[in-house]
Amino acid sequence: MKVKGVNLGNWLVLEKWMSPALFEGTTAEDEYYLPTQLSREVYEARIKVHRSEYITERDFGRIKAMGMEAVRIPVPYFIFGDREPFIGCIGELDKAFNWAEKYGLRILIDLHTAPDSQNGFDNGGICGVCKWSQEPEEVEFELSVLERLAKRYGTREGLWGIEVINEPVLEDMWECANVPERYPAVDTKKAEGSRGNTVEFIRQFYLDAYDRLRKFLPEEKYVVIHDAFHLKMWKDFMREDKYKNVVLDTHQYLTVAEMMGCGQTVEDYEAFIEKWGEDIAEMQQYFPVVCGEWCLANSVAIGYDTKGGQTVLNGVVNDSEQAVDEERRKEIYNKLAKAQLAAWEKGSGYFYWSYKLLIDTVNEKEWRGWDCWDFGRCVDFGWFPPEEAMADKTN
Q1: Pick from 119, 73, 77: which is nearest to 353 by CA?
Q2: The pTM is what?
């Protein structure tokens, strides 16, 4: 099993930095607070227009033409439209399956958010809050969403698998990433009691999720679990015969590597990537391992220290007048693309983050360099080597 794909980030789960215009006229930093600052009519119109325009059938055709075989689609816990004031998006996912099947692509449904959040990140739906695992009724709600997704799509030809939850943080990562400071909570009372999830809770949730999914999910479809930022922690997990086709998802970003002490030189990046490859090869003996999120972004090519991948929205501003020479930038990206693709090859494949984003990197200096997060632009500019994208396609 090898998979080569791209994420459809910021389509059904919003991330402000990927499309700042959606949040105009508000101080909201995440999806939770956006509807609290807009009238129902304006909120509904913005969301519906965004969803209908951001990803269309044409995009599925282009993704296939760029050599990809699959898409990972982040979906919110309110996908079925049963959590006011949020607007469900099951209709969009239905369309995505029709498009995927038309163009010969497969879909990994990624349950990306949870009520009161599993990580406190902006992409977890609400900044600075991480209490979901402490709320049994919300844990049950999340399991019910997985079960309903499996029931609806389990036998669809276009389904590759279902990821039970994206990026749950453990207690050490909550401290290490300094989540409350990096993603400040709007309502400190709501954030009270927030902390990283325990290992015991996440392991049990994965076991429960597997059982609930397999009620409707044929054995050949994959159940995907995230490594909770501890790739090598799962060697003793799901070893019993009953667990079939479980995939371990790891997310590896060079900007995060910088935050963890990786030096800001191409050589340092290559050494770090080589270590990723070794760890993936080691874990591939236990599970098929996919790198479900990665990209080319790094401070050297972007031209300034991004402080672990932070943007102007976090107050990190590009104050360097000297943009990196375009030829040099391309050379860096090509080298790092090849190194990372070689590392993922030691596992079972990858999904690039992300297919597209809506920021003006030409006219707005503070976003200069951020177009490397946009897979379409990476291919267009030759940063992601076309021979790599179009290389041998094996399923």
Answers
A1: 73
A2: 0.96
